[in-house]
Design a protein that fits this description.
Length: 221
């Protein structure tokens, strides 16, 4: 069985270091083991508070009971939870920092995808993503940019959609940039949830940090 590292635990909340390549909860098509499967035996009342995409790694919160779920969910809804991601995107990002505020809706051409800007269908939901350039580099003459990203909202695929809108899709993103380039050493989506900060049920502020995966570490920021 896959061993998942626990980053923080109290009687109500569990924070884990999610590996890339594992689903958070079951989908209708896949019979793969999920994060929920791996922890439900030990924590039968466990609930998913927020999601990381299958290929995204890093810090993730789980609620051990309904009370904790509602408590954390309220913090997410009120945008009180701080999240920091690291991402490698394709191309050289021009500005050293910026904020993307394009609302996100459904893609008209692919039910799996979301879209920011023109053509998005259905209800458009506000989305805010701040980014800062950590490093610009080239691999085999292909330019990439290493970013620190702080999503202020929690829309599905938000970082991936906003980076695509900026014309700098996340490297190795088979859904939003199929066939696009990957930096050396990467065979997974180049997106990592580095840090999450929240309040526990005692009202204490807790900051949980996930170590950078080896692929990111090798780039030596």
């Amino acid at each position: 069985m896959m061993k998942i590292k626990v980053l923080y635990e109290d009687s109500n909340i569990l924070a884990i270091d999610k590996p890339s390549g594992i689903l958070v909860h079951p989908d209708q098509k896949s019979k793969e083991k999920t994060i929920l499967d791996l922890f439900l035996k030990k924590y039968p009342k466990l609930e998913i508070v927020h999601r990381l995409d299958k290929e995204t790694s890093g810090a993730m919160l789980l609620a051990k009971n309904k009370k904790a779920y509602e408590f954390l969910k309220k913090q997410f809804v009120n945008r009180e939870i701080k999240k920091v991601y690291n991402a490698i995107v394709v191309g050289s990002v021009k500005n050293d920092h910026g904020t993307l505020t394009k609302p996100i809706g459904r893609s008209p051409s692919d039910f799996r995808r979301w879209l920011a800007g023109r053509g998005a269908r259905g209800t458009l939901r506000d989305a805010i993503t701040e980014y800062q350039v950590l490093k610009r580099f080239a691999d085999k003459k292909i330019k990439f940019t290493y970013l620190e990203i702080k999503p202020k909202t929690g829309r599905t695929h938000q970082i991936r959609v906003h980076m695509k809108f900026l014309n700098h899709p996340v490297a190795c993103d088979s859904l939003y940039n199929p066939g696009g380039p990957c930096p050396k050493g990467f065979n997974r989506l180049a997106l990592h949830a580095l840090l999450i900060e929240f309040k526990n049920l005692k009202g204490e502020s807790v900051k949980v940090e996930s170590s950078l995966p080896k692929e990111f570490e090798k780039l030596k920021i």
